Amino acid sequence: MTTLLGAHAVPPEYRGRADDYVSFVCDELIPAAAARKLADAVDAFCEGIGFSRDQTRRVFESAAAHGLRVKLHADQLSDTGGAALAAEFEALSADHLEYTSDAGVKAMAAAGTVAVLLPAAYYALRETQLPPIEALRKHGVAMAVASDLNPGTSPILSLRLAMNMACTLFRLTPEEALLGTTVNAATALGLSDRGRLETGLRADFAVWPIEHPAELCYWMGGFGPTRVYAGGREKLGA
What we know:
The chain has helices spanning about 20-35, 55-65, 80-90, 100-110, 120-125, 135-140, 160-170, 175-180, 185-190, 215-220; strands at about 5, 40-45, 70-75, 95, 115, 145, 205, 225-230, 235. By secondary structure, it is α/β, with parallel strands linked by helices. The longest helix is centred in the first third of the chain and has 18 residues, at about 20-35. The two termini are about 20 Å apart.
């Protein structure tokens, strides 16, 4: 899946004119990406330092009008109601969620929106507000785990380390972390043809030199997979 994250920050040339930039995203960027089939989904950053709920709603309405699914950076630094907004538009996923309320969690559950947990960003920013893990469990919201690899707030190269952090910092079980990087991760991307070892699905999998799946979360670095398959074909040198 290719995602257009046009509304992540206001560029310098639009400083002080956030609404004008949102208009550009909605009226020019999204239509062009959809027409050229350059994106499958549209993402945004709904936050005090990002875009307001109303601005994000405009972005999502434009995405829906052009047949694109939506995703959202939601409630990372404050409870802006981002999770509920994402659910309103049946978003594939909502990321971060540290400040999401119980109402937001319930809305995600009803919409089938996946909660994408990003423990490396939490760690790198030295955050103290944990995502509502127990509420997500209680209401049956699928939890994915991702690295959020970026040079600003999550300089992490290892998805396995993100799994470790999800267990140690967010108190996920190893089974939840494994589901979060396989089945639930595929669902968060709208990819129903992969994420599980099952006849008829796309064969994307890695072979690890371990005795128990929990070791993927336990060891902090030190080894990689011995074999990697993508689309049923072994990737040499992976």
